[in-house]
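Lab notes, practical 5.
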Amino acid sequence: MTVRRGAALVTAAVLMPVLSAPAVAQSYQCKAPTISQPIAPARKPADEPRRVTPVTGYTLAMSWSPEFCRLRKDDRRHKTQCSGDEGSFGFILHGLWPDGQGTSYPQWCRATKPLPPAVVRRNFCMMPSPRLMASEWAKHGTCMTEQPETYFRVSQIMFGAVDFPDMDRLSRKPLTAGALLNAFAAANEGVRPEMIRLKINRRGWLEEVRLCLAKNFRPRRCPAHMRAAGDDKPVKIWRGA
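Output from the prediction step:
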């Protein structure tokens, strides 16, 4: 990859509809912690191979924070996202992932340096976990561009272009996967249910919403290998105790 590739990412991204305000994690409140030291690079797990393969599209993965934090409020590893000290979050950005041919997506494409504090502060209200930022940049961002600033800028544009349905209202009534997909599609012009995938845990609670994107960052039909939850599958939305 070259720096020109990073510039192309930005050029393509700005073609998407963009919110006028900075991208935030659908937060009721957000206060970025004081961060003055670089964040150590994420290490590639020994059992995950380095794959440098052509990018065929992207997945915008958005995690439903109340469900993630339900059993992690006192976990020091997830303090910035889950303790409530830095904010109260709805959807956060899990990551912008490059897709490959079939299930063989690119990952861990190059070694990384520590994340600059300014990058972490600028993106905290979208991705309220410095550890997650470091991991997403190392595993996915390095396969898209050479600079973390470019990766997170494009991620902000993509995440900021998404309109979320009224999750409070949806959480109060019986819900199916099909109804939730329709609600997301209705909130976003040009998006159809087949362009979205849901991650629902074994207990039936929503964990994540994933939007499939083409190489030009426009929404596209999700690849066949990304299995969809049946439209009639019940899904619950945790809003907190």
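Observations recorded by the TA: The radius of gyration is 17 Å. The chain has one domain: 21-213.
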